[in-house]
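Q: Joint fold for the lines below.
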Amino acid sequence: MYNFRYHKAETIETARSLIEQSDDPKILAGGHTLIPTLKQRLAQPSDIIDISSIDELKMITVGDGFITIGALCTHSDISNSPDIKKNITGLADLAKQIGDPQVRHKGTIGGSVANADPAADYPAAVLALDGEIITSTENHKATNFFVDMFETSLDSDEIITGIRVKIPKSSTYKKFRNPASGYAMVGVFMARYEDDVKIAVTGASSSAYRMLDLESSLKSNFNNDIMADLAIDITNFNDDIHASAKYRGTILKVLLEEAILELK
Ligand SMILES: Cc1cc2nc3c(=O)[nH]c(=O)nc-3n(C[C@H](O)[C@H](O)[C@H](O)COP(=O)(O)OP(=O)(O)OC[C@H]3O[C@@H](n4cnc5c(N)ncnc54)[C@H](O)[C@@H]3O)c2cc1C
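A: Joint structure:
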């Protein structure tokens, strides 16, 4: 590790002011990505602003068709939340499939979304649930938030305070895990609304994305028959030591079929 100054912020205001006063600050939440990055000397921040004790970022609130999940909610908080289990089964199930118990008890949704790992699970859910990323300065629509691999529309001084998602009629998350890392080789989140269907994919390419054409086909005819003629465009798919682009395309098709059958 390189040397840095460590600060523990007890409120969002303190965290904001510490960020303002620092040359090159980094926020620390669960630390499951940031600490390994520091240990490997892949980052050299001047200051670490530890926000993990800010209680107001640990709430899950349900209101008027939406659920707001505090940025510091861990994957375990999310998978065990009665409100999320009842209203967005797919999201509770997704959180349950992340990493191992240690990761699930420390890793946070805010940290995961800010990190924008191309194989992370939440980006698919946040996109398919018409989500908004709420920060200390503004709200970002999920559709504009995930820019590229490890790149978001966040400014360096912004703190994610919560993620707001729209409650669907039903939802599911289908994941094909990388057997070594447990991350998504491909993951599909599908949400059905009264008169809409939203589908987002993670793991397949450099950033999570929505399948707009399939959404509109399924909106008029929610049936697995549609899949027979569906050609998956693998042009921008990852092709690496874990899987070829073609293999990822095949997995995606299978996961989509499973999701449709479950939500039919
Ligand atoms: C062994 C292992 C297995 C894993 N498996 C999976 C998996 O299967 N699926 C999956 O999706 N993830 C997986 N993860 C990732 C993990 O789930 C965490 O979500 C992820 O590491 C980031 O969350 P964190 O709270 O630890 O963030 P941190 O490591 O604290 O921070 C990560 C980044 O986000 C920034 N950040 C954190 N919080 C905020 C905030 N509120 N506002 C703005 N910026 C912020 C930090 O500055 C840093 O750049 C795994 C991690 C490990 C170590």
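Q: Anything notable?
A: The chain has a mean pLDDT of 97. Residues 1-53 form a domain with the Uridine Diphospho-n-acetylenolpyruvylglucosamine Reductase; domain 2 fold (CATH 3.30.43.10).
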